Each structure stands twice: as structure tokens, then as C-alpha cells.
Predict the structure.
Amino acid sequence: AQSVTQPDIHITVSEGASLELRCNYSYGATPYLFWYVQSPGQGLQLLLKYFSGDTLVQGIKGFEAEFKRSQSSFNLRKPSVHWSDAAEYFCAVVSLSNTGKLIFGQGTTLQVKP
Amino acid sequence: GAVVSQHPSWVICKSGTSVKIECRSLDFQATTMFWYRQFPKQSLMLMATSNEGSKATYEQGVEKDKFLINHASLTLSTLTVTSAHPEDSSFYICSARSLQGTTEAFFGQGTRLTVV
């Protein structure tokens, strides 16, 4: 069965520190992977996506993610976190049926300390 | 970029009444729209997938008679919560997939429904 796991429910980092949010997937084929960010009471904004090609993907707001097939991972990184990055982050994979249906991880809450 | 507008952003209604939530793709045509529900501090759970001009496909455990979905045009899908009860209070989010057939879907800003 397809699934996405975000092992860290809550992460706190200091402003200016580096960030890595983990995402592991279970999938029967080459996955289409996404990272979304959600501010409180808001919808989801796409940070970046991986369909194929270069396994290091650059996104908006200085985020990047690396697809590692051997580890079934798609971890999100940012070299220097800003206070405005505090939000909920979701990793997602497209359903094998390819209807555009997304399977989401549980989400990781990022808190940024001043 | 592709914009999906959801309306209203928040609504409060009395138990037993019905509430309609609209999801519009503003600058692209959406063959498929998705409706998600999100409980506090939890992830998004897909409720149903709607395709323009056909019946919606509901996920297991979602009552189709309670959550009516209509996708009458390539730019509009509506979710109607019928006979709402306090347990229906939640954050509802729609997303839309473009006609061009990419796997990317774009999300609305969500609707906070509170049933009192």
C-alpha cells in the first residue's frame, strides 16, 4: 500500500539554524513527491515537487529536497531558517492510480525560536 | 500561477442546516477537483474526487448523502454539508487538477466550518 511517513511530529529550531524535515514513502513505482506548507487557518502552498530527473529539487522560499530511492526518502532542507518559516509541513505522494489524488504524511509542526 | 479560490473562508451555522462551500479554479480549467477534510493538528483526509460532468467518487467511510459534491463546470465544484451537526465542524480544503493532465494539484485556502 502507498503511504507517507513523517517521523517528526514537532521540530523546534533556532532562527538562522539549518533545518531538515524527514519524509519516507512506500510506493510501488517511481513516485511523484511533493512538499507543502500550511500556515494556521490557511490552505496549502506548494514548496517543491519531484517527478523525475535531478534528485535534488529546488523550491520556493529557499527550500530544497533530495529524492533518495535507496532510502525511500524525500527530506526537506533549508540552510537557514527564518521566523516566518514556522508552520505545518506536509509531504505527499501521488496515488498510483494517478488521478491527482494525494496521500499525505501526518505533518510536521515547525517552531522557530528567536 | 494557478489559483484556486475557496469560498467562504469561514462559516458558522446552526445544527440541522446545510452549508455550501465553493471551489473555483480562477485561471485554469480543472477536470478533477478534490475535497479534503482536516481536523485540528492532523493531516488532510481525502473525502471525495469529483470530475466535471460526472458523479463524485467518495472515499471509504464518507457519507455521500451528507457531503454532496457537484462539479458542474470546469472551473467550479461545490461541497454541500447537509443537515450539519457539531461533529461536522472542521477545516475543509479543495484542490484542483488542471486540464493539461499534470499530476500537480493546486489548493484553495480552506473553509473553517463551525456548527453550533
